[in-house]
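README: folding subset

This subset contains proteins for which both the sequence and a predicted structure token string are available. Records are stored as plain text. Below is the entry for Cyclase family protein (259 residues), shown exactly as it appears on disk.
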Amino acid sequence: MVDLTLLLAEELPCTWPGHMPYQQKTFNYFAAGGVDEAHMVSPCGDYQTRWLLIDEHTGTHMDAPAHFVPRPGTGLPDEGEAGNVTVENVALSQLIGPAVVIDVAHLLEGATVDGESPVIGRSDVEAFELANGDLQEGDIVLFRSAWDAKHYRSGTEGAHYATNALIHKTGASWPAPVAETMRYLASRGVRCVGTDSPSMGSSHAGREVHIAGLSVGTIFIEALANLSALPVRGSTFVFAPLKVARGTGAPGRAFAFLS
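--- output ---
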């Protein structure tokens, strides 16, 4: 079994830039003192517990269709039935299946434009199929660039993971599929797509690919880790999200079984 989940910690770049920062603090402790944060001492005996402040899209997480698709009747652009699909309505069976790992690390080689994601095009997927066989209905496609291994770092180095490209428009950005690519995957019967970058969308124009996938019910798993430990084919991918009512997304544990 391979763990494909990022570690959550305040010192790591697990929060999407601009969202509520992840926090983990002591609430109860065994006795007075012993920790730096203000805390209570439980009247129920000696134990410790901590509280979490966490955005739905923190660390390794899923995007439900409602993340980008408004509910019908709102009058908002791109509204549709998919907007009714929140986390608790996504079938777990859609989050389990044969993993197909498409390596896109080569897109980071050579010259890149600061703050712009290299494109994972339909042609990249078709080239993969030519070399490795066609995608099948129910396959879970995982885009591997090793972005997590390069940039998921504590402290100021962690800004390279998402903040620099997204906010400051400096430095290289993660590879990302475009809408045409997502539509092609859907035509192949792929209903769950993952990436080891912080978002399925690019750092410069992320909305369109989210609409293309989520509007037809495709589920995204973002901010995966350790995809380099998986073979191209032959493993079974699993994502187990928190069951969040009305959730536009949810953190969870991603892992794979090797044959």
